[in-house]
Amino acid sequence: MGASVSNVYVQTYETYVRFLAQQGITRLRPWVMERSVQSEGHNWERLGTQEASEKTGRLVDTPDQDYPWSRRKSIPVTYHTGDSTEQEDIVQMIIDPNSNIAVAQGKAMKRAVDDELIRACTGDSRDGQGNAITFPTAQAIGDGTSPITFDIITNVSEIFMDNDIDPDAEKGFIIPPSAAGKL
Question: What is the C-alpha to C-alpha distance for residues 118 and 107, in angstroms, rounded to an integer?
Answer without folding.
Answer: 17
